[in-house]
């Protein structure tokens, strides 16, 4: 079957592939511990579900305006004022089918063939493929374990130039959990301000999941960047609403109008009754968000402690999101490594490790190469403490056996 050439530009989502393989093994009756999926394990809070059910019962089941209902736009405007001290008008807001679709609309709206998009690595898997589908060229800035997987202003100066069209910021980060402090954000903003034609897109989807640091939005930090920054956020992670498919953005009205036009010729409006649930989520008391954050912080500490002190692993303690991203370059020196490489048939370090771990210990993690960092793997600790203890106990056995 002949398919379009654009398919050569992209790869299937590796996180979804790992989850599919883990589900296959589960279906065979294997006792899998899944650390692959990037989704909170909590149920959506009851008041949010109630609002959507009420909307359904009242017949709110028809098309809505493409970029979202006015009531939800107002709730988003209030959220941006309350949490980020950012003032937007309704024509500066778009609601889409998840943060992913909003990002997709954004890149289709601003990128021409060959335009350069600068992105720190490790990065969230979909940025690369979305940028490529839009015709852009990804330029990665590789961060290191030593720098806490963060960029310095010097990295910006070295890698961003007058020909860069978009800079992507994601803090707290998927996959590392790295979270810039307010001072670090101000320093990055100062470096980016020097490029007057540069657009900034800040993906704030993990904004509410930060541990021990304030999260400052780069548009809040910099008046100069504000008119050319698009702030993307969504309901999936903060409110445990991944399946509702609700994301949004605030930004310059010309870009938002272009994104609206693209959305109008693809998905049209996000689901009507999901939007009513989102109104309830954003307008109600925010205690449920904090309650989930506290649980995640406890799990982070548990998972971090269990993974620390394993020979050959360096574990970075993240300040946000719900991931750990150990560096495993040191494991390649283990006596059992060459044989593991043979058994898995893989060549890159993260894939050798994660394939072996899944096949031999029934623990699903995502190889670092999925995020542009070969010598690592990602675990999502958005699962119960019992699963964390069980799964990471198996990781310890797996690693110990490589050194035996
Ligand atoms: C960094 C980042 N951005 C955006 C998204 C998109 O989330 P959604 O489309 O569910 O809003 C995700 C989901 O995993 C993510 O990790």
UniProtKB/TrEMBL annotation:
CDD domains named among the record's database cross-references: AAT_like
One Pfam family cited in the UniProt record for this chain: Aminotran_1_2
UniProt KW Transferase keyword: yes
Domain Aminotransferase class I/classII large, chain residue ranges per copy: 30-394
GO biological process: one example: amino acid metabolic process
Cofactor annotation: pyridoxal 5'-phosphate
EC number: 2.6.1.-
GO molecular function terms noted in the UniProt entry: pyridoxal phosphate binding; transaminase activity
Enzyme class, first EC level, given as a word: transferase
Keyword terms of this UniProt record: Aminotransferase, Pyridoxal phosphate, Transferase
Domain of life the protein comes from: Bacteria
The keyword Transferase is assigned to this record: yes
Record family assignment: Belongs to the class-I pyridoxal-phosphate-dependent aminotransferase family.
Name this protein carries in UniProt: Aminotransferase
